[in-house]
Amino acid sequence: MTDEQQAGRDRPTLLWTATLVWAAAGVAAFTWLDWVLASFVVIVGTTGLAMAFAARNWDQHATYEEREAARARRRKEKWERGAAARARDRARWEAHQARQAQRAPDG
């Protein structure tokens, strides 16, 4: 197992541990401090914990090349799904052009 995989596996454990420690610190803050100061401490700590939760998989995203390859694949599939409609439109256009050529006066 690589260090990155091990670090990725340890992050949820670390996050849950930090949440439990922060819950205990919040209770202690309200026990020992004035409620206004304790509220400030709890709000700041909860904000930091929420940011850590939001950033837990920040580095586990697709690269630009992977995203572009996926977009290209979806565009190709969409293009292939519309091939029959384009063939019908082309046949209608060619038939229209043939009718127009027959109607045109020789000149």
State the main characteristics:
single chain, 107 residues, mainly alpha, 4 helices, 83% helix
Walk me through the topology.
Blueprint: H1 3-32, H2 35-54, H3 64-81, H4 83-103
Helix pairs in contact: 1-2
In DSSP terms, counting alpha (H) and pi (I) runs of 4 or more, how many helices? 4
The percent of residues in helical segments reads over 70%
Radius of gyration: 32 Å
User: Which blocks of ≥5 consecutive residues have pLDDT under 50?
Assistant: none
> What's the shape?
rod-shaped
Descriptive account of the structure:
Helices cover 83% and strands 0% of the residues. The chain has helices at 3-32, 35-54, 64-81, 83-103. The termini are far apart. α1 (3-32) runs antiparallel to α2. The mean pLDDT is 84.
Care to give the gist of this entry?
The chain is mainly alpha-helical and 107 residues long. The protein is 83% helix and 0% strand. The chain is rod-shaped, with a radius of gyration of 32 Å.
